Amino acid sequence: MPEAPDLEVIKEFLNERVQGLTVSRASVLRPTVLRSLAGDMARDMPGRTFQEFKRRGKFLLAELSEDRHLVINPMLTGRLHHCASSERVAKRTSVVFGLPDEMDLRYVDDRQMGKVYYAAGAQLGQIPRLDEEGPDVLEDTPLEEFRARLKHFYGEIKGVLTRGSLVSGIGNAYADEVLFAAGIAPFRKSRSLTADEVAALHRQCRRVVEEAVVVLRERMDGRIHLKVRDFLKVHNKGGQPCPHCGGSITQLTANQVITSYCRRCQPGTLIKN
Known about the structure:
- By secondary structure, the chain is an alpha+beta fold.
- Helix content is 26%, strand content 23%.
- The chain has six helices and eleven strands.
- It has helices at residues 4-17, 41-44, 143-150, 157-163, 172-182, 195-220; strands at residues 25-28, 34-36, 50-56, 59-64, 68-73, 78-84, 93-99, 103-109, 115-119, 250-254, 257-261.
- The strands form three sheets. A five-stranded mixed sheet has the order 2-9-5-4-3, with helices on one face. It has a four-stranded antiparallel sheet with strand order 1-7-8-6. Strands 10-11 form a two-stranded antiparallel sheet.
- A hairpin with a 2-residue loop joins strand 10 (250-254) and strand 11.
- Helix 1 (4-17) runs parallel beside helix 6 (195-220) and helix 5 crosses helix 6 (195-220).
């Protein structure tokens, strides 16, 4: 799942390389991902110009000329590919946008779980979950506001982070990284956290994402279709040594969701905290 660090770097790349370009064609290869609220996208979009790209939580938004918007919710396996038009079209490519100089911007989704919305400005409110996002993880949210928002939640802290209502932009992988950095077990109930733990969580949410953005800018190097996660400290590294204590990283999988953590550095139980 592309999360705030990935999408932040992708947004920067698109603003540098695609902003200001006019769409020559819009081809829908797999219509299951498309939600075209503003008529037939394939007919309506050519001739419009990409303006600013923005990120809202785990959504990527592109403004187009004459009141059109492209909103992408990549979910688990969606990704964008900026490439030459002559490059082979991957099997799971869903939508292709033709650009000048024989280049394409393609949306590829291995499981066809993500969504691509084409909408007018007045229709943005119809896009599910777009307006339900909490403050962005990279916003300077005061600690006291963070504490007040956290009081509204009762579940396990990892689920609270990934839901996007407390802070937006954190998914499964970076929730593991934030909780490891804060020393909090992923299964702790949110209301069991001490004042110091809440302060650590607040601090690490932004720090972990900011540091990841720096790494991804260098490692992706314009290859926005890549998912670079090997530099993460605990996520998907079950059985490997913890970088802090040297103990073995625990990894559990439930409903196809991986949770990775260190039992020593993040004390807590699966049953009750």
